[in-house]
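Quick one from the shared queue. A colleague (R.T.) flagged DUF418 domain-containing protein as missing a structural entry in our internal table.

Convert sequence to C-alpha coordinates.
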Amino acid sequence: MAAPRNPEVDLLRSFALVGICIVNLPVVAIYDAPEPLRAPTGLDEIVYFANVWLLEGKVFPLFAFMFGWGIAGQQAAAARDGVAFSGRYARRLAGLLGLGVLHALFVYTGDILVLYALLGLLVWPVLGWSGRRLVRLALAMVPVAALAYVGLGALYLTGFGEIGDGPEITTFLDAVAYRQLDWPSTFCVVVLFNGPAAFAAFCLGLAGARAGLLGQDNACYLWLRRRSVPIALAGLGISLGYALAEAGFEADTPSTLAIVGMGLGPIGALFLSTAYLVAIVELARRVRFPQAFVATGQNSLTTYVLQGVIGGALVSGYGLALGPHLGSAGYLAVALLVVLLTMLFLRVWQIWFRRGPLEEVLRAITGSR
Protein backbone atom coordinates (compact mmCIF):
# COMPACT_ATOMS: atom_id res chain seq x y z
CA MET A 1 0.00 0.00 0.00
CA ALA A 2 1.30 3.44 -0.93
CA ALA A 3 2.10 5.83 1.89
CA PRO A 4 -0.37 8.72 2.30
CA ARG A 5 0.64 11.96 0.58
CA ASN A 6 1.81 14.85 2.70
CA PRO A 7 -0.26 17.88 1.59
CA GLU A 8 2.53 20.22 2.67
CA VAL A 9 4.90 18.57 0.18
CA ASP A 10 2.38 19.05 -2.62
CA LEU A 11 1.81 22.69 -1.68
CA LEU A 12 5.54 23.41 -1.59
CA ARG A 13 5.73 22.14 -5.16
CA SER A 14 2.63 24.13 -6.13
CA PHE A 15 4.01 27.42 -4.83
CA ALA A 16 7.42 26.76 -6.37
CA LEU A 17 5.78 26.15 -9.75
CA VAL A 18 3.89 29.45 -9.53
CA GLY A 19 7.20 31.22 -9.04
CA ILE A 20 8.84 29.26 -11.83
CA CYS A 21 6.06 30.25 -14.22
CA ILE A 22 6.49 33.94 -13.34
CA VAL A 23 10.26 33.76 -13.84
CA ASN A 24 10.18 31.66 -17.01
CA LEU A 25 7.42 33.27 -19.04
CA PRO A 26 9.35 36.35 -20.23
CA VAL A 27 12.20 34.08 -21.32
CA VAL A 28 9.81 31.88 -23.28
CA ALA A 29 8.66 34.99 -25.13
CA ILE A 30 12.15 36.33 -25.71
CA TYR A 31 13.13 33.22 -27.58
CA ASP A 32 10.05 33.03 -29.77
CA ALA A 33 8.67 36.53 -30.24
CA PRO A 34 9.88 39.66 -32.04
CA GLU A 35 11.43 42.57 -30.12
CA PRO A 36 9.15 44.41 -27.65
CA LEU A 37 6.97 47.07 -29.27
CA ARG A 38 6.59 49.24 -26.18
CA ALA A 39 8.93 50.90 -23.72
CA PRO A 40 8.78 49.67 -20.11
CA THR A 41 6.72 51.73 -17.68
CA GLY A 42 7.62 52.54 -14.10
CA LEU A 43 5.41 49.67 -12.95
CA ASP A 44 7.24 47.34 -15.32
CA GLU A 45 10.56 48.37 -13.80
CA ILE A 46 9.27 47.71 -10.28
CA VAL A 47 7.86 44.30 -11.20
CA TYR A 48 11.06 43.32 -12.99
CA PHE A 49 13.26 44.29 -10.05
CA ALA A 50 10.96 42.49 -7.59
CA ASN A 51 11.10 39.39 -9.80
CA VAL A 52 14.90 39.36 -9.74
CA TRP A 53 15.05 40.20 -6.03
CA LEU A 54 12.42 37.80 -4.69
CA LEU A 55 12.00 34.99 -7.23
CA GLU A 56 14.85 34.61 -9.70
CA GLY A 57 17.11 31.84 -8.45
CA LYS A 58 15.03 31.40 -5.28
CA VAL A 59 12.10 29.26 -6.43
CA PHE A 60 14.19 26.79 -8.45
CA PRO A 61 16.12 25.64 -5.34
CA LEU A 62 12.81 25.10 -3.55
CA PHE A 63 11.60 22.96 -6.47
CA ALA A 64 14.93 21.09 -6.53
CA PHE A 65 14.64 20.54 -2.76
CA MET A 66 11.34 18.80 -3.37
CA PHE A 67 12.95 16.73 -6.14
CA GLY A 68 15.51 15.47 -3.63
CA TRP A 69 12.65 14.87 -1.19
CA GLY A 70 10.99 12.77 -3.87
CA ILE A 71 14.07 10.58 -4.26
CA ALA A 72 13.70 9.51 -0.64
CA GLY A 73 10.07 8.70 -1.36
CA GLN A 74 11.08 6.62 -4.37
CA GLN A 75 13.51 4.65 -2.21
CA ALA A 76 10.75 3.96 0.29
CA ALA A 77 8.33 2.96 -2.48
CA ALA A 78 10.82 0.51 -3.97
CA ALA A 79 11.31 -1.06 -0.54
CA ARG A 80 7.53 -1.38 -0.06
CA ASP A 81 7.13 -2.96 -3.50
CA GLY A 82 10.01 -5.35 -2.90
CA VAL A 83 11.95 -4.25 -6.00
CA ALA A 84 15.49 -3.01 -6.52
CA PHE A 85 15.66 0.76 -6.28
CA SER A 86 18.62 1.08 -8.65
CA GLY A 87 16.83 -0.25 -11.73
CA ARG A 88 13.71 1.77 -11.09
CA TYR A 89 15.74 4.92 -10.42
CA ALA A 90 17.81 4.47 -13.58
CA ARG A 91 14.67 4.09 -15.69
CA ARG A 92 13.16 7.15 -14.06
CA LEU A 93 16.20 9.28 -14.86
CA ALA A 94 16.23 7.98 -18.43
CA GLY A 95 12.55 8.85 -18.80
CA LEU A 96 13.12 12.29 -17.33
CA LEU A 97 16.02 12.84 -19.72
CA GLY A 98 13.92 11.88 -22.74
CA LEU A 99 11.01 14.07 -21.69
CA GLY A 100 13.43 16.92 -21.03
CA VAL A 101 14.91 16.74 -24.53
CA LEU A 102 11.42 16.86 -26.04
CA HIS A 103 10.49 19.74 -23.74
CA ALA A 104 13.60 21.72 -24.70
CA LEU A 105 13.07 21.27 -28.44
CA PHE A 106 9.31 21.70 -28.60
CA VAL A 107 8.42 23.92 -25.64
CA TYR A 108 11.23 25.78 -23.84
CA THR A 109 15.01 25.71 -24.27
CA GLY A 110 15.53 26.75 -20.65
CA ASP A 111 14.33 23.27 -19.65
CA ILE A 112 15.54 21.93 -16.30
CA LEU A 113 14.42 18.31 -16.73
CA VAL A 114 17.58 17.30 -18.61
CA LEU A 115 19.71 18.96 -15.94
CA TYR A 116 17.74 17.22 -13.18
CA ALA A 117 18.23 13.85 -14.86
CA LEU A 118 21.99 14.43 -15.06
CA LEU A 119 22.17 15.70 -11.49
CA GLY A 120 20.17 12.65 -10.46
CA LEU A 121 23.08 10.56 -11.74
CA LEU A 122 25.57 12.67 -9.79
CA VAL A 123 23.60 12.35 -6.56
CA TRP A 124 23.28 8.57 -6.95
CA PRO A 125 26.65 7.76 -5.30
CA VAL A 126 25.72 9.74 -2.17
CA LEU A 127 22.23 8.32 -1.69
CA GLY A 128 23.56 6.13 1.10
CA TRP A 129 25.14 9.02 2.98
CA SER A 130 23.86 10.13 6.35
CA GLY A 131 21.78 13.28 6.63
CA ARG A 132 24.66 15.20 8.21
CA ARG A 133 27.04 14.33 5.38
CA LEU A 134 24.43 15.34 2.81
CA VAL A 135 23.92 18.69 4.52
CA ARG A 136 27.67 19.31 4.63
CA LEU A 137 27.96 18.46 0.94
CA ALA A 138 25.08 20.81 0.14
CA LEU A 139 26.66 23.69 2.06
CA ALA A 140 29.98 23.04 0.31
CA MET A 141 28.19 23.51 -3.02
CA VAL A 142 27.02 27.03 -2.14
CA PRO A 143 30.38 28.72 -2.87
CA VAL A 144 30.60 26.63 -6.04
CA ALA A 145 27.21 27.98 -7.07
CA ALA A 146 28.36 31.52 -6.25
CA LEU A 147 31.42 31.11 -8.48
CA ALA A 148 29.19 29.73 -11.24
CA TYR A 149 27.05 32.87 -11.05
CA VAL A 150 30.13 35.08 -11.25
CA GLY A 151 31.33 33.06 -14.22
CA LEU A 152 27.95 33.46 -15.86
CA GLY A 153 28.14 37.21 -15.36
CA ALA A 154 31.58 37.28 -16.97
CA LEU A 155 30.32 35.21 -19.90
CA TYR A 156 27.45 37.63 -20.49
CA LEU A 157 30.00 40.40 -21.05
CA THR A 158 31.30 38.45 -24.03
CA GLY A 159 27.81 38.25 -25.51
CA PHE A 160 27.45 34.57 -24.66
CA GLY A 161 23.86 33.50 -24.20
CA GLU A 162 22.41 36.59 -25.85
CA ILE A 163 19.56 36.01 -28.22
CA GLY A 164 20.07 37.43 -31.66
CA ASP A 165 17.28 38.79 -33.80
CA GLY A 166 17.02 35.52 -35.71
CA PRO A 167 14.12 34.68 -38.00
CA GLU A 168 10.65 35.93 -37.18
CA ILE A 169 8.80 33.20 -35.33
CA THR A 170 5.41 32.91 -36.99
CA THR A 171 4.85 29.13 -37.00
CA PHE A 172 5.48 26.36 -34.52
CA LEU A 173 8.02 24.78 -36.87
CA ASP A 174 9.92 28.08 -36.94
CA ALA A 175 10.11 27.91 -33.16
CA VAL A 176 11.32 24.30 -33.18
CA ALA A 177 14.07 25.11 -35.69
CA TYR A 178 15.14 28.12 -33.62
CA ARG A 179 15.23 26.07 -30.42
CA GLN A 180 17.49 23.48 -32.03
CA LEU A 181 20.05 26.21 -32.71
CA ASP A 182 19.60 27.94 -29.37
CA TRP A 183 19.48 25.01 -26.95
CA PRO A 184 23.24 24.23 -26.67
CA SER A 185 24.19 27.72 -25.46
CA THR A 186 21.07 28.00 -23.33
CA PHE A 187 21.82 24.67 -21.66
CA CYS A 188 25.25 25.99 -20.68
CA VAL A 189 23.52 28.93 -19.01
CA VAL A 190 21.09 26.58 -17.25
CA VAL A 191 23.98 24.46 -15.94
CA LEU A 192 25.79 27.48 -14.50
CA PHE A 193 22.66 29.14 -13.15
CA ASN A 194 20.95 26.08 -11.70
CA GLY A 195 23.44 23.20 -11.63
CA PRO A 196 25.42 23.57 -8.37
CA ALA A 197 22.48 25.17 -6.54
CA ALA A 198 20.10 22.41 -7.64
CA PHE A 199 22.56 19.70 -6.62
CA ALA A 200 22.82 21.27 -3.18
CA ALA A 201 19.03 21.42 -2.95
CA PHE A 202 18.76 17.75 -3.99
CA CYS A 203 21.02 16.81 -1.08
CA LEU A 204 19.11 18.98 1.38
CA GLY A 205 15.77 17.60 0.22
CA LEU A 206 16.99 14.03 0.54
CA ALA A 207 18.33 14.73 4.03
CA GLY A 208 15.16 16.57 5.01
CA ALA A 209 12.88 13.75 3.94
CA ARG A 210 14.87 11.17 5.84
CA ALA A 211 14.85 13.34 8.95
CA GLY A 212 11.09 13.87 8.74
CA LEU A 213 11.63 17.62 8.45
CA LEU A 214 7.94 18.39 7.94
CA GLY A 215 6.79 16.47 10.98
CA GLN A 216 4.78 18.53 13.46
CA ASP A 217 7.38 18.19 16.22
CA ASN A 218 10.54 17.85 14.13
CA ALA A 219 13.38 19.54 16.04
CA CYS A 220 15.12 20.83 12.92
CA TYR A 221 11.94 22.36 11.53
CA LEU A 222 11.12 23.97 14.88
CA TRP A 223 14.65 25.42 14.95
CA LEU A 224 14.13 26.91 11.48
CA ARG A 225 10.69 28.25 12.38
CA ARG A 226 11.99 30.05 15.46
CA ARG A 227 14.65 31.72 13.32
CA SER A 228 12.55 32.26 10.21
CA VAL A 229 12.41 36.07 10.54
CA PRO A 230 16.19 36.64 10.73
CA ILE A 231 16.65 34.02 8.00
CA ALA A 232 14.19 35.91 5.80
CA LEU A 233 15.81 39.27 6.53
CA ALA A 234 19.25 37.89 5.70
CA GLY A 235 17.89 36.44 2.47
CA LEU A 236 16.20 39.70 1.52
CA GLY A 237 19.35 41.71 2.20
CA ILE A 238 21.74 39.44 0.33
CA SER A 239 19.29 38.98 -2.55
CA LEU A 240 18.91 42.74 -2.79
CA GLY A 241 22.64 42.93 -3.43
CA TYR A 242 22.25 40.34 -6.18
CA ALA A 243 19.36 42.25 -7.75
CA LEU A 244 21.36 45.48 -7.71
CA ALA A 245 24.33 43.67 -9.26
CA GLU A 246 22.14 42.31 -12.05
CA ALA A 247 20.74 45.79 -12.60
CA GLY A 248 24.34 46.91 -13.07
CA PHE A 249 24.47 44.83 -16.24
CA GLU A 250 22.14 47.34 -17.86
CA ALA A 251 25.09 49.75 -18.06
CA ASP A 252 27.11 49.90 -21.27
CA THR A 253 30.16 48.64 -19.37
CA PRO A 254 29.15 46.70 -16.23
CA SER A 255 31.57 47.15 -13.36
CA THR A 256 33.66 44.41 -11.80
CA LEU A 257 31.57 44.91 -8.66
CA ALA A 258 28.43 44.03 -10.63
CA ILE A 259 30.02 40.82 -11.89
CA VAL A 260 31.24 39.79 -8.45
CA GLY A 261 27.88 40.78 -6.97
CA MET A 262 26.24 38.10 -9.08
CA GLY A 263 27.80 35.62 -6.68
CA LEU A 264 25.41 36.81 -3.98
CA GLY A 265 22.55 35.09 -5.81
CA PRO A 266 22.92 31.51 -4.50
CA ILE A 267 23.86 32.73 -1.01
CA GLY A 268 20.73 34.85 -0.73
CA ALA A 269 18.69 32.04 -2.26
CA LEU A 270 19.80 29.63 0.48
CA PHE A 271 18.31 31.92 3.12
CA LEU A 272 15.27 33.15 1.20
CA SER A 273 14.15 29.77 -0.13
CA THR A 274 14.44 28.41 3.42
CA ALA A 275 12.22 31.24 4.66
CA TYR A 276 9.77 30.50 1.84
CA LEU A 277 9.67 26.84 2.86
CA VAL A 278 8.80 27.68 6.46
CA ALA A 279 6.21 30.27 5.40
CA ILE A 280 4.50 27.87 2.99
CA VAL A 281 4.43 25.04 5.52
CA GLU A 282 2.96 27.31 8.20
CA LEU A 283 0.38 28.57 5.71
CA ALA A 284 -0.48 25.01 4.69
CA ARG A 285 -1.12 24.12 8.33
CA ARG A 286 -3.57 26.99 8.74
CA VAL A 287 -5.32 27.34 5.38
CA ARG A 288 -7.21 24.78 3.34
CA PHE A 289 -6.20 25.30 -0.29
CA PRO A 290 -8.42 24.39 -3.26
CA GLN A 291 -7.78 20.93 -4.67
CA ALA A 292 -7.14 22.53 -8.06
CA PHE A 293 -4.08 24.28 -6.61
CA VAL A 294 -2.90 21.20 -4.70
CA ALA A 295 -3.21 19.18 -7.92
CA THR A 296 -0.47 21.23 -9.57
CA GLY A 297 1.96 20.08 -6.90
CA GLN A 298 0.71 16.50 -7.03
CA ASN A 299 1.40 16.50 -10.77
CA SER A 300 4.45 18.74 -10.90
CA LEU A 301 5.92 17.29 -14.11
CA THR A 302 2.73 17.87 -16.07
CA THR A 303 2.33 21.30 -14.49
CA TYR A 304 5.87 22.39 -15.38
CA VAL A 305 5.57 21.34 -19.02
CA LEU A 306 1.99 22.54 -19.43
CA GLN A 307 2.90 26.01 -18.17
CA GLY A 308 5.40 26.28 -21.03
CA VAL A 309 2.91 24.98 -23.57
CA ILE A 310 0.15 27.39 -22.54
CA GLY A 311 2.55 30.27 -21.98
CA GLY A 312 4.18 29.78 -25.36
CA ALA A 313 0.80 29.73 -27.07
CA LEU A 314 -0.06 33.06 -25.46
CA VAL A 315 3.16 35.05 -25.80
CA SER A 316 5.11 33.51 -28.67
CA GLY A 317 5.09 34.45 -32.32
CA TYR A 318 3.49 31.16 -33.36
CA GLY A 319 0.55 31.75 -30.97
CA LEU A 320 -1.26 34.89 -29.92
CA ALA A 321 2.07 36.78 -29.99
CA LEU A 322 1.29 38.83 -26.89
CA GLY A 323 4.95 38.94 -25.90
CA PRO A 324 6.05 42.00 -27.90
CA HIS A 325 3.19 44.02 -26.40
CA LEU A 326 3.90 43.15 -22.76
CA GLY A 327 6.09 44.74 -20.14
CA SER A 328 7.09 42.97 -16.94
CA ALA A 329 3.75 43.79 -15.30
CA GLY A 330 1.91 42.33 -18.28
CA TYR A 331 4.02 39.19 -18.16
CA LEU A 332 3.16 38.81 -14.48
CA ALA A 333 -0.55 39.00 -15.26
CA VAL A 334 -0.24 36.49 -18.11
CA ALA A 335 1.85 34.16 -15.93
CA LEU A 336 -0.90 34.13 -13.30
CA LEU A 337 -3.41 33.40 -16.07
CA VAL A 338 -1.24 30.47 -17.16
CA VAL A 339 -1.21 29.20 -13.58
CA LEU A 340 -5.02 29.37 -13.43
CA LEU A 341 -5.43 27.61 -16.79
CA THR A 342 -3.05 24.86 -15.69
CA MET A 343 -5.01 24.43 -12.47
CA LEU A 344 -8.25 24.20 -14.42
CA PHE A 345 -6.85 21.57 -16.78
CA LEU A 346 -5.57 19.37 -13.97
CA ARG A 347 -8.75 19.71 -11.92
CA VAL A 348 -10.81 18.55 -14.89
CA TRP A 349 -8.27 15.83 -15.70
CA GLN A 350 -8.52 14.46 -12.16
CA ILE A 351 -12.24 13.88 -12.61
CA TRP A 352 -11.36 10.87 -14.77
CA PHE A 353 -7.72 10.12 -14.02
CA ARG A 354 -5.75 9.76 -10.81
CA ARG A 355 -2.48 11.24 -12.08
CA GLY A 356 -1.41 13.79 -14.65
CA PRO A 357 -0.60 12.56 -18.18
CA LEU A 358 3.16 12.98 -17.90
CA GLU A 359 3.19 11.39 -14.45
CA GLU A 360 1.57 8.33 -16.01
CA VAL A 361 4.15 8.30 -18.81
CA LEU A 362 7.05 8.53 -16.36
CA ARG A 363 5.58 5.85 -14.10
CA ALA A 364 5.16 3.56 -17.11
CA ILE A 365 8.80 4.08 -18.05
CA THR A 366 9.90 3.60 -14.45
CA GLY A 367 7.79 0.52 -13.89
CA SER A 368 6.19 1.90 -10.73
CA ARG A 369 2.83 0.62 -9.58
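The chain has a mean pLDDT of 91.
DSSP finds 15 helices and no strands in the chain.
Added to the table.
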